[in-house]
Amino acid sequence: xxxxxxxxxxxxxxxxxxxxxxxxxxxxxxxxxxxxxxxxxxxxxxxxxxxxxxxxxxxxxxxxxxxxxxxxxxxxxxxxxxxxxxxxxxxxxxxx
Length: 96
What we know:
Helix content: 10-25%
Distance between the termini: 33 Å
Largest sheet: 3 strands, mixed
CATH class: Alpha Beta
Structural class: alpha+beta
Number of helices: 3
Number of domains: 1
Strand content: 25-35%
Shape: globular
């Protein structure tokens, strides 16, 4: 999917991960704040979801619940998390 631009500024991203068979995850959706509420995120999500036909698509969020419901997602109460090491510090990149 190509990224939406306004001039040379990226104004949004939507990214998913898939095993290509039956499971996919939406891992981030972002729209530049001044450009929100113009349908950019909805369009990016529809394009992304069209590429995931036949798959169970997971999305973990506590933000914009109503936005995702409008796109057909169902709210669930399942989530587990773990921080490995110190949050936002990747020592494998700094040790080399």
